[in-house]
Amino acid sequence: MRIIFAGTPEPAVVALEKLIASRHEVAAVITRPDARRGRGRTLHPSPVKALAEKHGIEVLTPTTLKPGTEDGDALRARLAELSPEAIPVVAYGNLITEDLLQVPAHGWVNLHFSLLPAWRGAAPVQASIAAGDEVTGATTFRIDKGLDTGDILATLEERIQPTDTADDLLTRLAYAGADLLVETMDGLEDGSISPQPQEGEPTYAHKIATEDARIEWAQPADVIDRHIRAHTPGPGAWTLLGESRLKVGPVSLAAAEPGEAELRPGEVRFAKKEVVVGTGSAPVRLGQIQPPGKKMMNAADWGRGLSSQLPKDEQDEVTFS
User: Fold this and answer.
1) What are the structural domain ranges in the chain?
2) Considering Cα of 156, then 158, then 88, then 205, what sign does the dihedral take?
3) CB 60 within 8 A of CB 94
4) Does residue 259 have a pLDDT over 60?
5) Residues comprising the binding site for (6S)-5,6,7,8-tetrahydrofolate?
6) Cis omega (within 30 of 0) on the bond before 233?
7) CATH assignment of 2-205?
8) For 199-220, what is each residue's pLDDT tens digit?
9) Cis before residue 202, ω within 30 degrees of 0?
């Protein structure tokens, strides 16, 4: 089957690799335009574009898909020439207009990293970890004009591990989902897939802003643990120490020592080999922390350095907010 792949970031690369290796013909790739990154603000191709060029596949990089625009009209003309039978999509990042959805006979088929209708939207992996879900998965579905509302083509389940960060879970889903997407293309070609409407009450996973990743230390320890893992590595869970913003890596429960005073939410206790912070329930032990302008470092090392700079009577007054 002749297909065109639409995708942009690293998780989409795995799916494109699997499709290139499949029996289907990847006639072209649609991806976001080159973006400026780094201190020099130089232009860099998307990971999907880089892979497509490596394989000599035509790359289309419209800034918009809207009709009546130069880029949008050029894309429509090229799609008419290429005549794709399906357009599989993984995290493309651009709005697909309703008229374009009618171009391929089998539609635009999205790989979404949740079990729809759970966690429709931009950040399903993060939302599932933060919510404490035990099982998530991936879904292929036909894109329609709604937000992740189209008919389901295939699904798979993935158990969330107690220490999973968003990166851990997304990596597993990207690989398993890539196989699911190839199987979906196979099924559409041979007619073995029967689209099914979504059933159940939907939940939503909206795009994450930096402010959303702030840690609320008054929350119970298990909620804080999930919150931090859900925002690791990006945008990174964070807290304030005075006016300084610090990123915080995954934490673990800390056993209270006999006779120790109970820590208030956000209150920090330094020890030789650990840094412990109070929460709305049990205290947690920090694993890594990133002070402003520095790289992630061992929290115990950071704690020793900070406490050595503070007068003895101030060491017991350090509090995150």
Assistant:
1) 2-205, 211-308
2) positive
3) no
4) no
5) 114-117
6) yes
7) 3.40.50.170
8) 999 999 999 999 999 999 999 9
9) no
Structural tokens at position 10:
């690293």
Look at residues 216, 230, 282, 220 and name the one whose alpha carbon lies nearest to residue 253.
282
Report d(CA 6, CA 14) in Å as an integer.
13
**Do the Cβ atoms of 18 and 179 come closer than 8 Å?**
yes
Q: Is the pLDDT of residue 42 over 60?
A: yes
**pTM (global) more than 0.90:** yes
Nearest Cα to 195, choosing from 243, 155, 253, 138?
155
Same fold, 2-205 and 211-308: no
Kindly tell me if the per-residue pLDDT of 309 is higher than 70: yes
Q: What are phi and psi of 73, to 5 degrees?
A: -70, -35
Q: For 94, phi and psi rounded to 5 degrees?
A: -140, 145
CB 119 within 8 A of CB 151: no
Residue at 180: amino acid letter: L
Residue 112 identity (one-letter amino acid): H
Q: Residues at the annotated binding site?
A: 114-117
Q: SS in 3 state form for the chain?
A: CEEEEEECCHHHHHHHHHHHHCCCEEEEEECCCCEEECCCCEEECCHHHHHHHHCCCEEECCCCCCCCCHHHHHHHHHHHHHCCCEEEEECCCCCCCHHHHCCCCCCEEEEECCCCCCCEECCHHHHHHHCCCCEEEEEEEECCCCCCCCCEEEEEEEECCCCCCHHHHHHHHHHHHHHHHHHHHHHHHHCCCCCECCCCCCCEECCCCHHHHECCCCCCHHHHHHHHHHCCCCCCCEEEECCEEEEECCEEECCCCCCCCCCCCCEEEECCCCEEECCCCCCEEECEEECCCCCCEEHHHHHHHHHHHCCHHHHHHCECC
Number of other residues whose CB lies within 10 A of the CB of residue 172: 19
121 Ramachandran zone, left/alpha/beta (phi>0; psi -120 to 50): left
Average pLDDT over residues 81-97: 96
What class is the 211-308 domain? alpha beta
